[in-house]
Amino acid sequence: MVKDNETVIREFNELVNMTSSELESWLKEEQSQGSGWSKDDGSGETIGHESGRKIIDILNKNPNKDPDQYDEEDLQHMRKVVSYCKRHLAQEEKAKQDTDSKSYKSLKNWGHDPLKS
Fold first, then answer.
1. What is the model's pTM?
2. CB 62 within 8 A of CB 88
3. What percent of the chain has pLDDT over 70?
4. Residue 41 to residues 2, 19, 32, 47, 80, Cα–Cα distance (Å)
5. Read out DSSP for the chain?
6. How far is the C-alpha of 26 from the C-alpha of 105, rounded, in Å?
7. Which tens digits make up the pLDDT trace of 82-107?
8. What is the pLDDT of residue 97?
């Protein structure tokens, strides 16, 4: 069953616990680039790293988190972020225990810092 937009927005804002500036700083670090699946475009960027850039755009575009200000493209990506974070948080306790793990780094690329939750 597909979640309604209201649920997606609420869960996105709960799961993305990094500010746009925190996420932007993280994505500039070398360690953020070494976890996750590479995109198929030959750029070498991972899917999670690209996701982080999209999350920054969403956060900057709507800093007050007004549900009426998200467009369909935002909601589509927010849905992916919620799905990814929930799935990985349910499977990987290691992310909270080992900040050098790929799980930890990957979740941060998707806007969730396991140490903050």
1. 0.88
2. no
3. 85
4. 29, 28, 19, 11, 20
5. -PPPHHHHHHHHHHH--S-HHHHHHHHHSGGGGSSSPBPTTSS--BHHHHHHHHHHHHHHH-TT--GGG--HHHHHHHHHHHHHHHHHHHH-THHHH-TTSHHHHHHHHTT--TTT-
6. 9
7. 999 998 888 767 667 778 888 888 89
8. 76
For residue 96, give both structure tokens: 């909270």
Q: Which amino acid is at 6?
A: E
Q: Which amino acid is at 109?
A: N
Whole-angstrom Cα distance, residue 97 to residue 50? 25
Q: pLDDT by residue (tens digit) across 20-61?
A: 999 999 999 988 886 666 656 666 667 888 899 999 999 999
